[in-house]
């Protein structure tokens, strides 16, 4: 199972349009339908807000939307503390509340996260960290890869 961040679904939809890459999207539909690809409910909501047609495709494909549980909230709170974020004082260059919930979902399920947020040189202020840098923190330790790395790791091939 892989938890997908909204950024990866949006990246895939924008860069590999279903009408131009039908074998890829047929395969992805199978991954979604089998539960190999899941989304936190907050990631799904982000996709629905930005790309309603992609959200509709996800629902049609049988996406499993992971609800925010107490275990996920507890993990998100631990990560927030490790980032030294107090209250709602998120740094504009770092993760936000939804990002923490998405990372915490992957950590709670003990699975990888697929996110297309850019890797970054480790910032001087912990609160400036983006998803990949937060996942790499010792206290978090969630495997994080982007959409292309996910495809490569799958070994799937598309077309003739």
Q: What would you note in describing this structure?
A:
Helix 1 runs parallel beside helix 3. The model has no long low-confidence stretch (mean pLDDT 94). This protein is α/β, with parallel strands linked by helices. A five-stranded parallel sheet has the order 3-2-1-4-5. The longest helix is centred in the middle third of the chain and has 13 residues. Helix content is 50%, strand content 9%. It has a single domain, classed as 5'-nuclease (Rossmann fold), CATH 3.40.50. It is built from eight helices and five strands.
In short:
This protein starts with a strand and ends in a 6-residue tail after the last helix. The chain has a 5-stranded parallel β-sheet. It has helices at 6-15, 22-33, 41-50, 52-60, 70-82, 97-109, 131-135, 147-154, and strands spanning 2-4, 37-40, 64-66, 112-114, 144-145.
Task: Set out the fold topology.
Elements: E1 2-4, H1 6-15, H2 22-33, E2 37-40, H3 41-50, H4 52-60, E3 64-66, H5 70-82, H6 97-109, E4 112-114, H7 131-135, E5 144-145, H8 147-154
Parallel strand pairs: 1-2, 1-4, 2-3, 4-5
Rounded mean pLDDT score? 94
Radius of gyration: 16 Å
Weakly predicted, low-confidence segments = none
Q: Could you tell me the strand content as a percent range?
A: 5-15%
Terminal CA distance reads: 27 Å
């Amino acid at each position: 199972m892989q938890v997908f961040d909204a950024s990866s679904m949006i990246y895939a939809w924008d860069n590999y349009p279903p009408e131009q890459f039908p074998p890829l999207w047929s395969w992805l539909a199978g991954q979604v339908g089998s539960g190999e690809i899941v989304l936190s409910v907050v990631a799904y909501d982000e996709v629905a807000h930005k790309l309603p047609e992609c959200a509709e495709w996800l629902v049609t494909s049988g996406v499993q939307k992971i609800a925010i549980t107490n275990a996920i909230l507890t993990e998100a709170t631990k990560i927030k503390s490790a980032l030294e974020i107090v209250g709602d004082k998120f740094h504009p260059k770092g993760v936000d509340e939804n990002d923490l919930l998405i990372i915490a979902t992957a950590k709670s399920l003990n699975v990888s996260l697929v996110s297309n947020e850019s890797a970054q040189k480790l910032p001087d202020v912990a609160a400036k960290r983006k998803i990949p840098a937060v996942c790499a923190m010792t206290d978090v330790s969630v495997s994080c890869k982007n959409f292309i790395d996910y495809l490569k790791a799958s070994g799937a091939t598309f077309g003739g």
